[in-house]
Protein backbone atom coordinates (compact mmCIF):
# COMPACT_ATOMS: atom_id res chain seq x y z
CA UNK A 1 0.00 0.00 0.00
CA UNK A 2 1.25 3.51 -0.75
CA UNK A 3 2.03 5.84 2.12
CA UNK A 4 2.30 9.62 2.25
CA UNK A 5 5.84 10.92 2.79
CA UNK A 6 5.03 14.62 2.77
CA UNK A 7 1.93 16.55 1.69
CA UNK A 8 0.49 15.30 -1.61
CA UNK A 9 3.36 12.88 -2.25
CA UNK A 10 2.76 9.13 -2.28
CA UNK A 11 5.60 6.65 -1.74
CA UNK A 12 5.41 3.06 -2.98
CA UNK A 13 8.52 1.85 -1.20
CA UNK A 14 7.43 0.71 2.26
CA UNK A 15 5.18 1.70 5.14
CA UNK A 16 7.80 3.37 7.31
CA UNK A 17 7.01 6.81 8.64
CA UNK A 18 8.47 9.80 6.79
CA UNK A 19 12.13 10.54 7.54
CA UNK A 20 12.12 13.93 5.78
CA UNK A 21 11.27 16.58 8.32
CA UNK A 22 12.51 19.86 6.81
CA UNK A 23 10.02 22.69 6.36
CA UNK A 24 10.32 25.65 4.02
CA UNK A 25 12.52 28.28 5.67
CA UNK A 26 14.63 25.85 7.72
CA UNK A 27 18.32 26.67 7.80
CA UNK A 28 19.27 23.09 6.93
CA UNK A 29 17.81 22.36 3.52
CA UNK A 30 19.70 19.09 2.91
CA UNK A 31 16.47 17.15 3.45
CA UNK A 32 15.06 19.01 0.46
CA UNK A 33 17.84 17.78 -1.83
CA UNK A 34 17.21 14.21 -0.65
CA UNK A 35 13.52 14.72 -1.31
CA UNK A 36 14.20 15.98 -4.82
CA UNK A 37 16.47 13.02 -5.60
CA UNK A 38 13.73 10.64 -4.42
CA UNK A 39 11.16 12.40 -6.61
CA UNK A 40 12.93 11.43 -9.85
CA UNK A 41 14.24 8.00 -8.83
CA UNK A 42 12.93 4.69 -10.17
CA UNK A 43 13.47 1.08 -9.07
CA UNK A 44 14.44 -1.73 -11.43
CA UNK A 45 11.99 -4.65 -11.24
CA UNK A 46 13.13 -6.60 -14.32
CA UNK A 47 15.29 -6.18 -17.40
CA UNK A 48 14.33 -2.83 -19.04
CA UNK A 49 11.44 -2.48 -16.58
CA UNK A 50 11.25 0.14 -13.83
CA UNK A 51 8.72 1.40 -11.29
CA UNK A 52 8.21 4.82 -9.72
CA UNK A 53 9.28 5.16 -6.10
CA UNK A 54 6.94 8.06 -5.43
CA UNK A 55 4.47 10.36 -7.17
CA UNK A 56 3.33 13.92 -6.51
CA UNK A 57 -0.16 15.35 -6.96
CA UNK A 58 0.12 19.19 -6.96
CA UNK A 59 -2.69 21.06 -5.21
CA UNK A 60 -5.59 21.52 -7.62
CA UNK A 61 -4.06 19.28 -10.33
CA UNK A 62 -5.93 16.56 -12.22
CA UNK A 63 -3.11 14.05 -11.99
CA UNK A 64 0.54 13.37 -11.24
CA UNK A 65 2.90 16.28 -11.98
CA UNK A 66 3.98 15.87 -15.61
CA UNK A 67 7.56 16.96 -14.98
CA UNK A 68 7.97 14.09 -12.54
CA UNK A 69 6.86 11.56 -15.17
CA UNK A 70 9.32 13.03 -17.70
CA UNK A 71 12.13 12.93 -15.14
CA UNK A 72 11.44 9.37 -14.02
CA UNK A 73 11.22 8.14 -17.62
CA UNK A 74 14.57 9.82 -18.30
CA UNK A 75 16.04 8.17 -15.20
CA UNK A 76 14.82 4.77 -16.42
CA UNK A 77 16.31 5.36 -19.89
CA UNK A 78 19.60 6.54 -18.36
CA UNK A 79 19.85 3.21 -16.54
CA UNK A 80 20.07 1.36 -19.87
CA UNK A 81 22.92 3.31 -21.53
CA UNK A 82 26.66 3.33 -20.69
CA UNK A 83 27.93 6.14 -18.45
CA UNK A 84 29.86 7.80 -21.28
CA UNK A 85 26.59 8.70 -23.05
CA UNK A 86 24.83 12.00 -22.25
CA UNK A 87 21.20 12.85 -22.93
CA UNK A 88 20.93 15.36 -25.76
CA UNK A 89 17.19 15.31 -26.59
CA UNK A 90 13.80 13.93 -25.61
CA UNK A 91 10.38 14.10 -27.26
CA UNK A 92 7.32 13.08 -25.27
CA UNK A 93 3.51 12.98 -25.22
CA UNK A 94 1.21 12.98 -22.20
CA UNK A 95 -1.65 10.59 -23.02
CA UNK A 96 -3.62 10.24 -19.78
CA UNK A 97 -3.50 11.94 -16.38
CA UNK A 98 -1.47 9.84 -13.95
CA UNK A 99 -3.15 8.45 -10.84
CA UNK A 100 -1.09 9.28 -7.76
CA UNK A 101 -2.44 6.20 -5.95
CA UNK A 102 -0.99 3.73 -8.49
CA UNK A 103 2.75 3.26 -9.23
CA UNK A 104 3.91 4.02 -12.76
CA UNK A 105 5.62 1.26 -14.74
CA UNK A 106 8.33 2.38 -17.17
CA UNK A 107 9.20 -0.05 -19.97
CA UNK A 108 12.39 0.86 -21.83
CA UNK A 109 12.78 -0.23 -25.46
CA UNK A 110 16.41 -0.29 -26.66
CA UNK A 111 16.03 0.89 -30.24
CA UNK A 112 19.68 1.53 -31.07
CA UNK A 113 23.14 1.23 -29.53
CA UNK A 114 25.69 2.87 -31.82
CA UNK A 115 29.25 3.99 -31.28
CA UNK A 116 28.26 7.67 -30.98
CA UNK A 117 24.49 7.64 -30.41
CA UNK A 118 21.99 5.50 -28.50
CA UNK A 119 18.19 5.66 -28.79
CA UNK A 120 15.58 4.61 -26.25
CA UNK A 121 11.78 4.61 -26.29
CA UNK A 122 9.95 4.54 -22.96
CA UNK A 123 6.29 3.72 -22.33
CA UNK A 124 4.91 4.73 -18.93
CA UNK A 125 1.75 2.86 -17.93
CA UNK A 126 -0.70 2.37 -15.09
CA UNK A 127 -3.14 -0.55 -14.85
CA UNK A 128 -2.14 -1.74 -18.31
CA UNK A 129 -2.79 1.59 -20.07
CA UNK A 130 -0.12 3.90 -21.47
CA UNK A 131 -0.23 7.34 -19.82
CA UNK A 132 2.99 8.74 -21.34
CA UNK A 133 5.45 7.92 -24.12
CA UNK A 134 8.88 9.40 -24.79
CA UNK A 135 11.81 8.91 -27.15
CA UNK A 136 15.29 9.68 -25.84
CA UNK A 137 18.53 10.19 -27.75
CA UNK A 138 21.91 9.91 -26.04
CA UNK A 139 25.33 10.80 -27.45
CA UNK A 140 28.99 10.57 -26.53
CA UNK A 141 30.73 13.97 -26.26
CA UNK A 142 32.46 14.81 -29.55
CA UNK A 143 36.01 15.73 -28.54
CA UNK A 144 37.80 14.61 -31.70
CA UNK A 145 36.46 17.26 -34.08
CA UNK A 146 36.46 21.05 -34.26
CA UNK A 147 32.79 21.97 -33.73
CA UNK A 148 30.79 25.11 -34.42
CA UNK A 149 29.48 26.89 -31.34
CA UNK A 150 27.19 29.87 -30.83
CA UNK A 151 24.28 30.86 -28.60
CA UNK A 152 21.86 33.68 -27.88
CA UNK A 153 22.65 36.01 -24.98
CA UNK A 154 21.11 35.52 -21.57
CA UNK A 155 18.23 37.98 -20.94
CA UNK A 156 18.84 40.93 -18.65
CA UNK A 157 16.49 40.44 -15.68
CA UNK A 158 16.77 41.04 -11.91
CA UNK A 159 18.95 38.52 -10.03
CA UNK A 160 17.17 35.70 -8.16
CA UNK A 161 18.31 36.96 -4.76
CA UNK A 162 16.24 40.11 -5.29
CA UNK A 163 13.03 38.17 -5.97
CA UNK A 164 10.60 36.48 -3.56
CA UNK A 165 10.13 32.73 -3.84
CA UNK A 166 6.81 31.24 -4.90
CA UNK A 167 6.21 30.27 -1.26
CA UNK A 168 6.80 33.88 -0.16
CA UNK A 169 4.28 35.11 -2.75
CA UNK A 170 1.69 32.55 -1.63
CA UNK A 171 2.20 33.54 2.02
CA UNK A 172 1.55 37.20 1.17
CA UNK A 173 -1.64 36.26 -0.68
CA UNK A 174 -2.77 34.24 2.31
CA UNK A 175 -2.60 37.37 4.48
CA UNK A 176 -5.09 39.25 2.30
CA UNK A 177 -8.55 39.77 3.77
CA UNK A 178 -10.58 39.78 0.54
CA UNK A 179 -10.00 36.19 -0.63
CA UNK A 180 -12.62 33.44 -0.60
CA UNK A 181 -12.43 30.57 1.90
CA UNK A 182 -11.96 28.10 -0.99
CA UNK A 183 -9.01 30.06 -2.40
CA UNK A 184 -7.54 30.47 1.10
CA UNK A 185 -7.60 26.69 1.58
CA UNK A 186 -5.96 26.22 -1.83
CA UNK A 187 -3.16 28.60 -0.83
CA UNK A 188 -2.61 26.71 2.42
CA UNK A 189 -2.30 23.44 0.51
CA UNK A 190 0.24 24.97 -1.89
CA UNK A 191 2.35 26.26 1.01
CA UNK A 192 2.18 22.95 2.91
CA UNK A 193 3.63 21.16 -0.11
CA UNK A 194 6.98 22.82 0.71
CA UNK A 195 8.38 22.11 -2.73
CA UNK A 196 12.00 20.88 -2.73
CA UNK A 197 12.51 23.26 -5.67
CA UNK A 198 12.98 27.00 -5.15
CA UNK A 199 11.12 28.91 -7.89
CA UNK A 200 11.34 32.70 -8.28
CA UNK A 201 9.22 34.51 -10.83
CA UNK A 202 10.11 37.79 -12.52
CA UNK A 203 6.85 39.72 -12.15
CA UNK A 204 5.18 41.03 -15.31
CA UNK A 205 3.59 44.47 -15.15
CA UNK A 206 1.16 43.66 -18.01
CA UNK A 207 0.12 40.70 -20.21
CA UNK A 208 3.23 39.51 -22.02
CA UNK A 209 4.03 36.52 -24.21
CA UNK A 210 7.46 36.18 -22.58
CA UNK A 211 8.08 35.28 -18.94
CA UNK A 212 11.14 34.60 -16.79
CA UNK A 213 11.59 32.25 -13.87
CA UNK A 214 14.57 31.13 -11.81
CA UNK A 215 14.78 27.68 -10.26
CA UNK A 216 17.16 25.44 -8.30
CA UNK A 217 16.95 22.75 -5.65
CA UNK A 218 16.89 23.68 -1.98
CA UNK A 219 20.04 22.06 -0.64
CA UNK A 220 23.06 20.84 -2.56
CA UNK A 221 23.13 17.70 -4.70
CA UNK A 222 26.04 15.42 -5.45
CA UNK A 223 28.02 15.27 -8.69
CA UNK A 224 25.79 12.77 -10.55
CA UNK A 225 25.24 14.54 -13.89
CA UNK A 226 22.34 12.19 -14.70
CA UNK A 227 20.52 13.26 -11.54
CA UNK A 228 21.00 16.95 -12.41
CA UNK A 229 19.61 16.37 -15.92
CA UNK A 230 16.56 14.54 -14.50
CA UNK A 231 15.84 17.33 -12.02
CA UNK A 232 16.14 19.98 -14.73
CA UNK A 233 13.66 17.95 -16.79
CA UNK A 234 11.38 17.84 -13.72
CA UNK A 235 11.48 21.60 -13.19
CA UNK A 236 11.20 22.48 -16.89
CA UNK A 237 7.50 21.52 -16.85
CA UNK A 238 6.64 23.68 -13.84
CA UNK A 239 4.70 26.81 -14.85
CA UNK A 240 5.70 26.35 -18.50
CA UNK A 241 2.29 26.09 -20.18
CA UNK A 242 1.07 28.90 -17.87
CA UNK A 243 2.93 31.26 -20.21
CA UNK A 244 0.05 30.90 -22.71
CA UNK A 245 -2.40 32.16 -20.09
CA UNK A 246 -0.20 35.09 -19.05
CA UNK A 247 0.20 36.10 -22.71
CA UNK A 248 -3.57 36.55 -22.90
CA UNK A 249 -3.95 38.32 -19.57
CA UNK A 250 -6.21 35.64 -18.09
CA UNK A 251 -6.55 35.69 -14.26
CA UNK A 252 -6.05 32.44 -12.33
CA UNK A 253 -9.77 32.08 -11.65
CA UNK A 254 -10.49 32.39 -15.36
CA UNK A 255 -8.69 29.17 -16.31
CA UNK A 256 -10.94 26.15 -16.72
CA UNK A 257 -8.33 23.66 -17.97
CA UNK A 258 -4.58 23.91 -18.45
CA UNK A 259 -2.78 20.65 -19.17
CA UNK A 260 0.34 19.62 -21.08
CA UNK A 261 0.01 17.57 -24.27
CA UNK A 262 3.67 17.11 -25.15
CA UNK A 263 7.11 18.14 -23.91
CA UNK A 264 10.42 18.35 -25.76
CA UNK A 265 13.93 19.14 -24.55
CA UNK A 266 17.37 19.60 -26.13
CA UNK A 267 20.31 19.44 -23.71
CA UNK A 268 23.28 21.47 -24.98
CA UNK A 269 25.66 21.04 -22.04
CA UNK A 270 25.79 19.95 -18.43
CA UNK A 271 24.20 22.20 -15.82
CA UNK A 272 23.79 21.88 -12.07
CA UNK A 273 20.21 21.82 -10.79
CA UNK A 274 21.35 23.07 -7.37
CA UNK A 275 22.67 26.37 -8.82
CA UNK A 276 20.34 29.10 -10.06
CA UNK A 277 19.05 28.54 -13.58
CA UNK A 278 17.10 31.17 -15.52
CA UNK A 279 14.13 29.91 -17.52
CA UNK A 280 12.99 32.16 -20.37
CA UNK A 281 9.49 31.11 -21.56
CA UNK A 282 7.83 32.53 -24.67
CA UNK A 283 4.42 31.72 -26.16
CA UNK A 284 4.05 32.70 -29.84
CA UNK A 285 0.52 31.37 -30.32
CA UNK A 286 -2.75 30.23 -28.71
CA UNK A 287 -5.73 29.06 -30.79
CA UNK A 288 -8.34 26.29 -31.07
CA UNK A 289 -8.12 25.51 -27.35
CA UNK A 290 -4.35 24.97 -27.39
CA UNK A 291 -1.22 27.01 -26.77
CA UNK A 292 2.45 26.49 -27.58
CA UNK A 293 5.48 27.59 -25.54
CA UNK A 294 9.23 27.63 -26.23
CA UNK A 295 11.83 27.91 -23.49
CA UNK A 296 15.52 28.51 -22.89
CA UNK A 297 17.31 27.53 -19.68
CA UNK A 298 20.50 29.46 -18.88
CA UNK A 299 23.16 28.82 -16.24
CA UNK A 300 24.08 31.66 -13.88
CA UNK A 301 27.19 32.41 -15.96
CA UNK A 302 25.07 32.94 -19.08
CA UNK A 303 25.44 29.63 -20.93
CA UNK A 304 22.39 28.28 -22.75
CA UNK A 305 22.15 24.75 -21.28
CA UNK A 306 18.70 23.55 -22.41
CA UNK A 307 16.05 24.45 -24.98
CA UNK A 308 12.44 23.31 -24.45
CA UNK A 309 9.09 23.26 -26.24
CA UNK A 310 5.57 22.32 -25.19
CA UNK A 311 1.95 22.43 -26.35
CA UNK A 312 -1.01 22.21 -24.02
CA UNK A 313 -4.78 22.43 -23.72
CA UNK A 314 -5.85 25.96 -22.73
CA UNK A 315 -9.54 26.42 -21.86
CA UNK A 316 -11.33 29.21 -20.06
CA UNK A 317 -14.08 28.87 -17.48
CA UNK A 318 -17.60 29.51 -18.76
CA UNK A 319 -17.67 32.75 -16.77
CA UNK A 320 -14.41 33.99 -18.33
CA UNK A 321 -15.61 32.96 -21.81
CA UNK A 322 -18.80 34.98 -21.43
CA UNK A 323 -16.86 37.93 -20.05
CA UNK A 324 -14.59 37.95 -23.12
CA UNK A 325 -17.50 37.46 -25.54
CA UNK A 326 -19.18 40.53 -24.09
CA UNK A 327 -15.96 42.49 -24.34
CA UNK A 328 -15.62 41.54 -28.04
CA UNK A 329 -19.24 42.55 -28.72
CA UNK A 330 -18.71 45.96 -27.12
CA UNK A 331 -15.50 46.47 -29.09
CA UNK A 332 -17.39 45.89 -32.37
CA UNK A 333 -20.15 48.41 -31.58
From TrEMBL:
GO terms (BP aspect): acyl-CoA metabolic process; fatty acid catabolic process
Quaternary organization: Homotetramer.
Top-level division of the source organism's lineage: Eukaryota
Similarity field: Belongs to the C/M/P thioester hydrolase family.
Protein name, per record: Acyl-CoA thioesterase II
One GO location term (cellular component): peroxisomal matrix
Keywords: Hydrolase, Lipid metabolism
Residue ranges annotated for the Acyl-CoA thioesterase-like N-terminal HotDog domain, each copy included: 56-138
Hydrolase in keyword set: yes
Keyword Nuclease: no
Single GO molecular function: fatty acyl-CoA hydrolase activity
CDD domains (alphabetical): Thioesterase_II_repeat1, Thioesterase_II_repeat2
UniProt domain Acyl-CoA thioesterase 2 C-terminal: residue ranges: 212-313
InterPro entries referenced in this protein's UniProt entry, alphabetically: Acyl-CoA_hotdog (IPR042171), Acyl_CoA_thio (IPR003703), HotDog_dom_sf (IPR029069), TesB_ACOT8-like_N (IPR049449), TesB_C (IPR025652)
High-level lineage: Eukaryota, Fungi, Fungi incertae sedis, Mucoromycota, Mucoromycotina
Pfam annotation, one family: Acyl_CoA_thio
Amino acid sequence: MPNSTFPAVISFGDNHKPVITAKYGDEDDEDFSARMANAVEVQEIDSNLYISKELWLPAGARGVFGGQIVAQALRAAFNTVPDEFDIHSLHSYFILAGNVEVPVIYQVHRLRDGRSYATRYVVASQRGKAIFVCSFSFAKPDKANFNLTHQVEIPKVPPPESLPSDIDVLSELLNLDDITPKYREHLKQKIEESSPMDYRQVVRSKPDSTGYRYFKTRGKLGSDKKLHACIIAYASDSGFIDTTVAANGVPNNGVGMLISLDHCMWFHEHARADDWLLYEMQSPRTNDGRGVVFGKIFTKDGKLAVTTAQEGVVRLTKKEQEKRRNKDRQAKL
